[in-house]
Amino acid sequence: FDTTRMPTRAEEERANAAAETLGTTALLKVERGYQGGADTAMLALAAVAAFVTLGAAAIATGLAITDGEADLQTLAAVGARPRVRRALAGSQASVTAAMGAVLGSATGLVPAVAIVEARSHSFLQSVSDARAAGPFSAARTVHAQSYLAIPWWFLIGTIVVVPTVAGVGAALV
């Protein structure tokens, strides 16, 4: 059923009681969508993602600074302050961490979309059922559909906050 508003729990219970009085064993269930909360697994995942991203950024920045030692010597020779060299290291770390976070998030999103689509597969299954039933069949199968709920705050934290921390950390060190 499609309603104009979200039914309350009391309305859901009344509908189920009415269905039971009619003798049916099927109960109505209201899909309330994603119900998020303070999830420790998500916080642990964020900590691991931050650790991996910061570690990779530190290693890549160290290699880039070692590789660009001649550039740093040129900067020092022309009178650049140490602040400029620290800003260069910070920007290298920020760019490296941001690229890794964006690519890693996109790489993680692709399998998530594939899993949700594989679980729901309602469109392909409906098409194959309609073909098998024939063009004049009135029986149509309704398939459950899964929805992808993207954790936007987690993604923003991974893509924005972690590279910022990497850049500031590299500039300070």
- What's the story with the biggest beta sheet? none
Beginning-to-end CA distance, first to last residue? 60 Å
DSSP helix fraction = over 70%
How many strand segments? 0
Number of helices: 6
* Average pLDDT rating: 79
Percent of residues in beta strands?
A: under 5%
Which tags fit this structure?
173 residues, mainly alpha, 0% strand, elongated
Description:
With 173 residues, the protein is mainly α. The chain has helices at residues 9-21, 40-67, 69-77, 82-120, 122-133, 152-172. It is elongated. Residues 138-143 have low confidence and may be disordered.
Quick overview:
This protein has 173 residues and is mainly alpha-helical.
Topology:
Layout: H1 9-21, H2 40-67, H3 69-77, H4 82-120, H5 122-133, H6 152-172
Helix pairs in contact: 2-4, 2-6, 4-6
